[in-house]
Each structure stands twice: as structure tokens, then as C-alpha cells.
Fold each of these.
Amino acid sequence: MAMTIRDSPVVAVAELVIRLTPGPVAEKAISILGHRDKQVLVLIILLLVSLLFAWAGRLAARAWWAPLLVFVPLSVLGGVAASMQHGASALDVLPVVVGFVTWLISLSLLTEPLHRARAATSTTTPATTASAPAAASGPATEPTVPGRTRRSFLIRGGAIAAASVALGMAGRAVGRGRRHVEETRRLLKLSGVTAPVVPPGARLPLDDMSPWMTPADDFYKINTAIVVPAIEPVDWQLRIHGMVDREVVLTYQDLVDRQLTEGWVTLNCVSNPVGGPLIGNAWWSGVRLADLLREAGVHPEADAILQTSDDGWTCGTPLSALADNRNAMLALAMNGEPLPIDHGFPVRTLVPGLYGYVSACKWVVDIEVTQFSQFSAYWTERGWGERGPVKLSSRIDVPSSGGELSAGSARIGGVAWAQHIGIEAVEVALDGGDWQPAEIAHPPTDDTWVQWVATVDVAEGDHVVRVRATDKNGLVQTGVEREVLPDGATGWHSVDFTATAS
Ligand SMILES: Nc1nc2c(c(=O)[nH]1)N[C@H]1C(S)=C(S)[C@@H](COP(=O)(O)O)O[C@H]1N2
Ligand SMILES: [Mo]
């Protein structure tokens, strides 16, 4: 059966909770729990379900039907959640039905000996108690009622545990889907994809600086899906339709056969607080979106594309950012390797200059050419800005917050970014003093972050340093502090450190 772990009712309920959570609350949860928010949610749901089951067990001692008070609402919730998932069919409710029947059978098997025992003790009249010695000499091989109850309870419990283990193993077999795709991905050779080479001038030497290239394993991940899609390239296709002259349907092979474009692009998340980690720089290879859109023939009145992922996630991207000279692409590879599954294998979108939530659709399967006035997308429905141009920002990597430097002439460094505009200058200010210029690196395009290093004189003791950048339009990074909601944080990153005697 083509059942995947995504069909689990617990996951469905968790996804329902996520869907019903208002944007600002979800944002708070993500900022408190980091990106383990979904695992925590699943754990909470499992814990609640266990508590409800314990309660159902106690109810069962009272009347055979009482646990239904717990099972029926739980199953209905699971069923509703499962059927509300993106692309759900009647089949998705099946695990819930199976679960419901399993609970009923398990509980009645487990409690049946208890009921029998209770029935036995309650029919034990004083008269029969009096004749107990006689009874004992009769069916003497039969254990006493409490003993038999315990044994039978244990045997049945054991049988159910064994059945659960068997089911668990079956579940793991279901997880094979992802392992298969992982295997396909590992064997995939993409001609036209070149290995990343750090461009000359992109790096400034400073220990503990974030590396120019973020390895895929360290690259931040944002997924609303708890279990991400595992798609075989042969099963993937993308439809470009809507306000176009000709609908275009592309297979993975179609993309591989085309001329690939490659480039360094820094991707960042709108939820990244000032100085935060939700940013990474990678070498991407893919097919230019501008070419595909030209082939489809975009109508002049269109101003957006609505992208849909295999997992149902959506985002709206301004056409203006796709048709100009920037390297907006359907990416097939990251850092010279096929995209990792978690970063969108087999195909994801990438648009330099826009936050990921309005552009970087992973596992993209549908692109509708349309108008912003015609739709709302996943995050815009939750209160985030409709357009998401990246805001000019900068970060201090060295020293780390609360870290140490040797007193004297100290080197401070980090990154600054204003994708597709470019960084003109970076300045630092020590202990609230004047802004002093930093040296900046010169990467080949404006689509990446820019490393910077400043040399400052620090006396022994505690200090605070802050940074600001200026973009190539002459805009100076604002010191006004704004929250990430609705369209990205602003403010200056500052770091406290101690200068020690060297
Ligand atoms: N299908 C899908 N695509 C998605 C997302 C998502 O949750 N689901 N998150 C978006 C957001 S908010 C960001 S910042 C980037 C992050 O990409 P990464 O996980 O590869 O770093 O992916 C975008 N694409
Ligand atoms: Mo994001």
C-alpha cells in the first residue's frame, strides 16, 4: 500500500494545530522552541493521547462502553485532521479507522479478565466461601481467581505489546519511501553541475568567522510539514499555467537536459532576528525561471506566481523579481550535489533578494502565473507581508556574544547582506563611540553575503560592539529595532565581550 508516515493521525493532528495557530503565536513558538517546535508539538500530542488512554483504561473498569467517550472524539479529531491535509483522500482516514478498531480490541482484550474476575468475586456468596475447601479439592488445578486474572492479563498485555512491535516494524517498512529516495539521490549524477569553488576576493581571513559556503548539513531549515515529501525524480513534474499563452509541463529529465545556470546565493528567513542564524550561503545549480516563463508566454496583466509545494505549502512571488537579470532558478543542486531531501529534493525555487517565505518553494510542483489580488499564500494568510524583499542587515560573528578577545588591536568580523543590491560599506562602533569603517570582501555578485573585518583598539575589560552596513543604493542600515513580524527584523546587532590581557 502506498501509505507513508505522513498519513499518521498524530502528524495530521499536529499539522492541523499548526494550520490553526495564528501567525504571531506560531512565530513566538518558533522563536522559543527554535526549529524543534514541531517535534515538541508531536510529543505533546502523544503525551496528551497517553493520558487520555490511561483515563480510558480506568473508565473501562466501570463499564465496557465508557472508553468510547475517549476513543470516539479522539478518532473524530484524528479523522478530521487527516482529511484536511493537503490532497487528502478517503484513504487518509483509513489509519484512523484502523487505530480506533485496534484500541477497542486491545482494551477489551486487556480488561476482559478483570471484568470476569470482578464478576466472579461479586457472585462469590458467603455460602460458596464457606465451601471453599471443598471447591479447592475439586478443580484443584485451577489457580485462584486473582492469580488467574493476573496471568491472563499479563499474557494478553504481552500479546498486544508483541503486536505493537510488529506494527512498528511495519511502520518502519513504510519509512522506506524516504530511504529509497535518499538512495536515488545518492546515485544521481548531474552533468552540468559543477563543484563549488570559493570565488577570489570573497573571503577575509579571520578565525571563527562563518564560512563563506554554508555546508548543507549546517544550512538552516524551515518546514511547515512535519514529515517532508520524499519524491522520486521520475515521479516529479512541474506545471506552469495560469495567465500564460502556453501551459508548460516539465519533468526532472527536461530540467536536467537544459542548460544549467549556477551561482552563489545567500538565502535567509524573514524570521531571523537581528544577529540570528537563519541565513546561509550556497552554490546553487538549476534552470533559469525567466527562460521558462518566457517560453510559457506570461500575460502582461500578471504580476505574481503562486508556487505550490508537494506538501501543500504555498508562496506568492513577484514576477518582477523573476523576469529581470537575477539568477532566479529552479534549483536542482546545492553546493555541487543534488539538493538534500530536506532542502527540497528534487527541485526547489530560489530567488536572490527575497526572503525564503515568498520565494524559495521546496518540492515545488506547481507554478500558477497570476495576480497578487487573486490569492493569499501560506504565510501571508498568517499575517506576514505579501512581498518579502530582504532587508539590509549585518551580523557580528567574532567575537561571539559573551566571548573574549585579547586587549590591544583586536579583529572583529562577520557578514553583511543586501541581496541583489549589494553591500557598499560596513562600520562598527565600540562602546557607543563613533562609527569606524571595516574592511569588506568583494564577492563576484551582489546576491550573497559579504564578509567584513574591523580592527579596533580595545582596552582590558568589558565592551560592547555593534555593526551597521550601507548598501549600494546608499541606504544606511537603520538602528530602529523592529520584530521579525510582519516583514523582517531591523536594528543593529551588538555583542558584549571581554578583552583580556594578552
Ligand atoms: N514546501 C516548503 N517550502 C518552503 C518552506 C516550507 O515550510 N515548505 N519554508 C520556506 C521558508 S520560510 C524559508 S526561509 C526557506 C528555507 O529554506 P531551507 O529550509 O532550505 O533553508 O524555504 C521556504 N520554502
Ligand atoms: Mo522563512
Amino acid sequence: MNSTAKTLAPIPLLDLESEYRALGESISAAVQRTIDSRQFILGREVAAFEEEFADYCRAPHATGVNSGTSALHLALLACGVGPGDEVVTVPFTFYATVAAIGYCGATAVFADIDPRTFNLDPAALEAAITPRTRAILPVHLYGQPADMDAICAIARRHGLPVIEDAAQAHGAELAGRRAGSLADIACFSFYPTKNLGAAGEGGMVTTANPEFARTVRMLRDWGQERKYHPVLKGFNYRLEGMQAAVLRVKLPHLDRWNDARRASAALYDSLLDHPSLIRPFTLPEARHVYHLYTVRVPARDAVQRSLDAAAVQTAVHYPTPIHLLPAYATPRYRAGDFPRAEVAALSVLSLPMNPWLTPDQVRRAAAALLDALNALEIPAPLCDNRS
Ligand SMILES: *Cc1c(COP(=O)(O)O)cnc(C)c1O
């Protein structure tokens, strides 16, 4: 590494500071407006944001909740998932996907990923379905929709509902259809680092099914439609007015922000031509919104340290597949059961990606990555398990 690297400003993985600077006074005004209205929980701002987000996703119904995890929990319950049931999902995801299945008393059954996209492999899904399967939960990892045509065709054949984990995919599309309207019901997170982030926690469930929408709406607020008359055992999963007000300020910018991410990804793609690197693969029908720009490299941890020394922030999403995490391990699964997920966990590296990256920053990050790969002692062959 050259000695000036340390003195260069770090290239940030995320850039919440620029996001809030770009929005100026409008966030403070939205917060103040909510305080003035005293509608702190649900209320006008939440109702308005639900309508705007439903429109954005081209979904008939949207219900605001207090996190992406709560959205997953309620979507699973709306699909009738309960104790003794199995839900098929991927072992390569953020563990909230799997935790929510556990909250229902159900069992997560894993199906391996397509090594090109890191998303649920339809053939593996087919093989994982049993008579106990009650729902299918694909994840649109890194901002690219899973292969929903194939997944939904299998689901239809088995009479199973499909739930999208769209927590990383606000605005992503498949054949012109938006995430949030690609299956029976979909879940979003507004965790601050997501493509659309609240100033705190938040989430949303979208669906075209009015019964699912009604159940989720009741369950998020103690199982009641009328105060003090709960008809279901529900939860306190309500979205706050202030979060909705902040999200309403941001939503009109989302498409532009996603376009900026896509432009940076295209620049990375053009620069990162190296025999021991695999760039993100996008399905021909997909509009990827690059929540993360994640490559595969050999000697990943060493490469990450080199980038750190060059002031390029990176992260690993995710270092351990769920079936190998102590908290989620079960006798059902062992190391080696999901080789594609396990190899992915060893090789993935997420590069700086946010709407405020400049072409210069992308070029610097790409150059540092190529330097790091060229400096590897033994040109380690990349474990390329694309099939
Ligand atoms: C962030 C995330 C969640 C959880 O969302 P929270 O709002 O943090 O509860 C679920 N699934 C995936 C894939 C995520 O990235």
C-alpha cells in the first residue's frame, strides 16, 4: 500500500451523514409536525406513508410495523404458520429471516442458494418441501429479487404461500414488477442502513390479499380493530408516527438513490475485471438495487485487511450461514449440508456502496481491491462453485 492511503479520507461503506445533509430541514420539519400533532403511534403520518409505500410497490395493501423482523413474524402468522409447521428458506441471510420462523413456533427448513445470485435455488427448494411445509420464504439478498417465477410456480404446484423477505430490496424489480408485489405477501425493513431507512426502527408488510392485510393490521395492534376488543392474540408492533413522517420525506428520493447505487455498481463492474474475482451476477429480468455490492474473492480476510489499510471500508454479509450459528444450530443440520452457502460465507466481501459515492471513490476502492488481489502471495484460485 502506498503511504498516502492513510491520509486519504476513508471511503465509507454507508453514508448516513450525506443522506441527512441532503434532506436538509425537511426531516426536522416532519418530526416537528408529528410532535405538534401528538400522533406518536400510528395516526395520520403512518396512514399516509402506508398509502404512499403501497403505491411505490404497486401493492394494494401496506401495513406499517415497528421493524422488518415484526413484518416477517406477522406475514408468517397471516399465512397460517404455527407450531409443527415447516417454512423453507435460505441458510445464507441475515438471521432475522430465520428468527421470525422460530417466533411462530415453526421450524426453518433450509434450501441451498444459487451460487451466482446468492438467492434461493428453485431446485433446492423443490427438494426441501415436505408434507409439513406451510410456507416458502425467499430473501432478495443484497437488493436483487430471488428467482420468483420459478419459486412461485413450485409454490403453486404445492399449494403453498410465498413470503418475500424484501428487507434489502426496496424498489428492486423483476420483469418490470416491484419487490413487494412479487408473491403473496412481502416484508420490508426500514432499519437506518437499508435503501429506505427510518430515523430508528420500522418495517412494512405489503400484500394484494385483503385477508392477509386485515390479519396483519390486527396483529400489529394487539389483535384488535376496535380498542379494548382484541379478537386475536396480538402484539405491540405498531409503527411510530415520527418514523413514518421521516420515511415520507425520503420515499420520493428512493428511485434516484437506487439509480445512483446502480451507476456506482456499473462503474465497479467495468473496473473489476480480474481472474480471481467474481462480480455480482444479475438475472437478465432483474433490476438490482444494490443494497450491497458484494464480490467473491479468495483469501477474503487478507483482502479485507488490505482494503482497510487503504482506507476502504468493507464488510462481510454474512460470515456464517445460519445453520452453523450457535443460536440457530439444530441436530437436523451439520457443516457441509449447504455447501454453496458455506463457500459463499467464506468468500463474500461487500464494497463501499451508497447513493453518495463519487466515481472517484469507486475508482479508488476498485484500484485498492485489484492491488490487494495482485499482492496475494500465492495466486489463490477462487473457489468458483458456479454450476
Ligand atoms: C434487515 C433485515 C431484516 C430485519 O429487519 P429489522 O428491521 O432489522 O428487524 C430481515 N431480513 C433481512 C434480509 C434483512 O436484511
